[in-house]
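Suppose you are handed a protein chain with no further information: no name, no annotation, nothing but its sequence. What can you learn? This example shows the usual starting point.
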Amino acid sequence: MAAQGVCLNHIARESADVKRLAQFYKEVLGFEEIESPKFGGFEVIWLRLPPSFSLHLIERNPKTKLPESPYSAASAIAEPKNLPRGHHVSFSVCNFESFVHFLKEKGIETFEKTQPDGKTKQIFFFDPDGNGLEVGSLETPAVTP
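A reasonable first move is to predict its three-dimensional structure. Written in structure tokens, the prediction is:
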């Protein structure tokens, strides 16, 4: 039997600079820092996007053989325009146009597109460690009289 009652618990990102990455997610996407366990030997920062989504930032293990980021992988996704078909985490916002303006003011390189239905707008960009991000517009529900 397949798992039941499944929900997303958290996403973990490894980083050589967890403080810098945490600051990006707090400043750009509104995450808040929450209490993190003290593992000893490496730093972690846990972030939450209310009401319940968590992002765990974990100090990179220098002994790992994994690519440090998509930029350092053998076939890096160097441009945001390649992200719609690449690895990325997606968020939705209700202030899409002002959020796009905010990213541009910060000098973050982006790629914008609209779904074929013409309703959902998307913007793709990278966090400071090269992890792909998508932010989509939330459709405003129709109000019935």
